Amino acid sequence: MKEIIGVRFRPNGKIYYFDPQNFEVEAGSFFIVEPTTEQAYGKVLQGRREVEEGKITASLKPIIRIATEDDTRRYEDNKKKSKRAFGICLEKIAKHKLDMKLIDMNQENRSKGVQIVESVVDMAHRLNLPIIAEGVETPEQVSMLQAADCLYSQGYYFFKPMPVENAEKLLADPTNQDYWDLRRDLMRRDRRVENPGTEKTALALQAYQIFTDNVLEISLLNLATGAYRVIKRDARLLGADLEKEEDFVNYCDRLVNEKIVHEEDTDLFLEQTDLEALRSVLYHATAPEFYRYRENVSGQYIWVTTEVLPCRGCCAQNPWATVLVRNDAQADQLSEELDFSYSHDTLTGLANRSRYEADLRELPNSGYESVVCTYIDVVGMHEVNEHLGHRSGDTLLCCLANAARKFFATSRVYRIGSDEFVILTPNEPPYSVWSTADRMRAFLKEKDYAISVGIQQTADLRHLDEAVAKAEAAMRQDRQAYYDHNGRARQLEGLNEKMERTLQEKRDAEHFLRVLAPKYKTVIVVDLQQDTVRPIIVPDYFQSVLDTCGGSFRAALTNYRDKLVAPEDRENFAKLFDFGLVRSTVFSSNLLEHRYRKTDGRSFCIRVTPYSRSGSHINEVLWIFADEEVE
What 8-state DSSP symbol labels residue 88? Predict the structure, then answer.
């Protein structure tokens, strides 16, 4: 298993995965990473989680460091400069009366820009013209171009300007996956390589990169001649030497004769894979051909789906097709994960605006007699972010989301904006929903949070959006009434009081630690699973040991034993290195104590207690190093 985190570089952009190293990573924090050849400022959307190493499709790059205030300031300055540059470009276009339109590829019009790119690529393919996209700078742009069937692109994402000698070395190396020889690829009319060990065609490489971790087999098929080349075949499939089979008919016959295909499916399998039948279906077709059968994988038969995808303009002169064999369960799981990611908010886990708009279209056919629309807005979200920080704002949103799940358990709850939520409750009277909303409001008030609520019932589900608009208008009236009654000054006063309480608690804790410091030499929180340390009281010499050991507590503890523990106590001290034993002892008896003498003759005691018995800190324990000779 391998630990990963999900990082996003642009709002609503694609999530990329990195190795968190020993950094303390939480959703919403910011880090400096190196996705390509330059460092970038990214926000963590998905905290630590473990995945099987086989599911990681590319080399996992590590986090470089935690983002500083200077990094954040530079990032915000660059955003402002980008807007200013966009305005200057618009002025120059107007001044010189250029017949062009400048497109700002933000989230609102991104789909339009992608449609323009896809249209240009499609037009080039229809005219049988080669096409190259220039100015590619991010992995997201590469993925978008590949999805649009644009095989060739160039830009800073691949390489920066370089000396002539470096460029000559690059051109002489055909194995580099970021450099494809366009002339060689277009001249190779049968799209096959002379030496499969040194290079792949652009089509094969693209298919390999996209599908390799989600399919059992990828192959190229010449529908005219039956020539067949296996690009990737999963090691779990029987018949390892089938990779060398270059004739499709022989390949299918061997699958049957060697009982790799289930004997009950052989007749249908041979009928569906008949080369003449495939030609008649796929020539001049754009849709793939599907067929299902049971295949022996790791000693047991499972259902697989084979897809034969014709190339663009597939015909007798261009007879190539891509053959994909995939496990249906894998495809279903991948589809579910993508669907959930597309339809749910990453912070709160609630359904997002995309799911909300889809449900508005589907609800008229649901059979419900009526729906009550509840529109909720967080009061003072801007002030919370300004005075207490965005992490406090995220905590507020998650608290509201959890409250909505608790009080509206049978309803559909959506986060449709930064601090706006919609709840759709079918077949309930409005007074019942009002009662539930009031209980939720009281619950949040106990936590010093306030919300504005608007409610509207409708039996006309075909115009449900109108009911939502009325609920929003009612919410705005409720919010105005709140401000008229409480006033913004009172709200800011409450926020200042909360911030002052937090600061006072911090000062009290620091004073308490100073009083304890003479006796308790070192106090740290240790994650026994990750072997990481979070310091509370750490003397300089132990901090330097931690730094030397790269933050590893086990390595630092070993260094501490070898240099500071008396030789006669070192063997017994080594029992503390068994973190599994430490964890079981601590969580069964609530305390582990270990006494020893240091090389200077003083008596010390290590006490280990649980830090938390639930949640994300379940693997953390508190280590206290106490000088027993200090009263």
Answer: H
**Integer Cα distance of 488 and 494 in angstroms:** 10
Cβ–Cβ < 8 Å for 258, 266: no
pLDDT in tens, 215-274: 788 888 888 888 888 877 777 777 777 777 888 888 888 888 888 888 888 888 888 888
Residue 4 main-chain phi, psi, to 5 deg: -135, 165
- Alpha-carbon span 381 to 378, nearest angstrom: 6
| Contact residues for 114 (Cβ-Cβ < 8 A; gap 6+) | 144, 148
HEC string of 224-235? CCCEEEEEEECC
User: Rounded distance, CA 135 to CA 117, Å?
Assistant: 13
First to last CA, the chain: 47
Closest CA to 364 of 461, 456, 460: 461
The Cα-based distances of 132 to 119, 142, 226 in angstroms read 14, 12, 31
Q: Are β-strands 217-222 and 320-327 bridged in parallel, bridged antiparallel, or unpaired?
A: antiparallel
- Kindly give the residue spans of alpha helices, DSSP state H, lying in 230-350: 248-257, 266-272, 275-282, 328-343
Q: Whose CA is closest to 210, among 324, 45, 61?
A: 324
d(CA 229, CA 246): 6
Written as six digits, the tokens of 104 are 């700002």
CA–CA distance, 244 with 585 (Å, rounded to integer): 56
Q: In what helix (H) or strand (E) does residue 608 lie, and over which residues does it extend?
A: strand 603-610
Closest of 563, 550, 626 to residue 21, by C-alpha: 550
Q: What pLDDT digit, counting tens, does each position of 57-73 carry?
A: 566 788 888 888 888 88
Sign of CA dihedral 12, 16, 17, 19: negative
Strand 15-18 relative to strand 40-51: parallel, antiparallel, unpaired?
A: unpaired
E strand intervals along 109-160: 132-134, 152-154
Residue in the block written with tokens 């998905």: 46
Across the range 515-529, mean pLDDT stands at: 75
Average pLDDT over residues 390-400: 88
Mean local confidence (pLDDT), 141-166: 81
